Each structure stands twice: as structure tokens, then as C-alpha cells.
Amino acid sequence: HGYPDTDIEQILITQEQIAERTAEMAQRIGERYSDTPEDLILIGVLKGAVMFMTDLSRALPIPNQMEFMAISSYGSSTSSSGVVRILKDLDRDIAGRDVLIVEDIIDSGLTLTWLMKNLATRSPRSLEVVTLLRKPAAVSLPVQVSDVGFDIENAFVIGYGLDCAERYRDLPFVARLNPEVYSG
Ligand code: PRP
Ligand code: MN
Ligand code: MG
Q1: Is Signal included in the keywords of this UniProt record (predicted)?
Q2: Ligand 3 centroid to 37 CA: how many Å?
Q3: For ligand 1, is residue 103 a contact (CB within 6 Å)?
Q4: What is the mean pLDDT of residues 147-156?
Q5: Atom number, ligand 1, closest to the C-alpha of residue 45
Q6: Global pTM value
Q7: Alpha-carbon 116 to chain mean position
Q8: Which residues, in sequence order, are CB contacts of 163 under 8 Å at separation 6+?
Q9: Angle at CA 165, nearest 5°, toward 170 and 46?
């Protein structure tokens, strides 16, 4: 991959494990939406969800369409306030459609809580969430997450879309980042 080996403390989920779990989730989701009147709309949250989104889309056994949103949390970068700003909105109407939000990770859950509320006001036929990863703080969230790929430890994780200052998204696996990288 070209990064120093010391940047990666431990691989938590391999490329093969991601592919296997994605295929399982895609089957389950496909069964759930098999009777829907129109194509399922996937909404990927940029940028972290991009890798999972494209793999999930291709693994789904039902027709699906890809849309993207980019959102950013207001305020300090260390603690999210829960107030979110739309950087790129959907460019189409989702009223009456079956919508599945696709996330790479739910950490505090603030991004997702806000997004669910926002999208619910647009009158979709249904609105659910799939995430590849979930951290411990998000396990007890009131927001219902229909599908979770892996519940993981509370560590700084990178790879397969997840970044540290925009780096490491291109790694094909999920790994724990060496703390020396982000503590300077
Ligand atoms: C990350 C991640 C989720 C969100 C989860 O995105 O991709 O979207 O944070 O955190 P939360 O549950 O505490 O809200 P980030 O804001 O880093 O943007 P990115 O996807 O472009 O990396
Ligand atoms: Mn994100
Ligand atoms: Mg990020």
C-alpha cells in the first residue's frame, strides 16, 4: 500500500472479511426490499462511505441507485456539537422512495441522528441505515440501525474509506492507527 508499516498498529478487519460480511448484508437487505415498487436508493455519506457504498451496491441482488450527501459538523473538531451543515445535498427528490443511508462508521452517532431527522422530513416511503462499523458509544443509540457489519473497539480506525487527515482511505482493510501518527 505504500504507507510506512509502523503507521498501522493492527489490522482489525481484513479485505476478505469485509467482502464476506458485505455479501451477507447485501443478501439480507435484498430480501427485505424484494417487494418494493421502485429501485432502492442508497445515500452514501461522503467521503468515508464511498468504498463500502460501491461494494454494497454491486453486491445487492436488487436494482439500486446511488446518491451522495456531504455533511460537516459545526464547531470544534474534537467534540461534535451535533449541529450539522450540508456541504452537498441530494440533487433529487426522495419522496415516496425506499431509502437506505450507507455509512462507513457510527461513532458518537451525531451525524446519523441529524441525517435521519433531515431525510425523514422529505417523506421517503421508508428510511433505514446500514453501517459497516459501529463503535461502542453508538450501540445504545435511539436511531434504529438495521444492519451493522462489525461492532468494533473504541480505537482510532482507518482504511476502507476511513481517514486520518484525509490519509489512509485507500487501504483495502480496516486497521487501528498507530497513536504516534495522530498525536504528532
Ligand atoms: C466520519 C464517519 C462518519 C462520522 C461518524 O465522517 O465517516 O460519517 O464521522 O461520526 P459520528 O457518529 O460521531 O457522527 P467525517 O466527519 O470524518 O467525514 P469523512 O467521512 O469525510 O471522513
Ligand atoms: Mn463520514
Ligand atoms: Mg473523517
Answers
A1: no
A2: 35
A3: yes
A4: 97
A5: 8
A6: 0.95
A7: 13
A8: 47, 48, 169
A9: 65
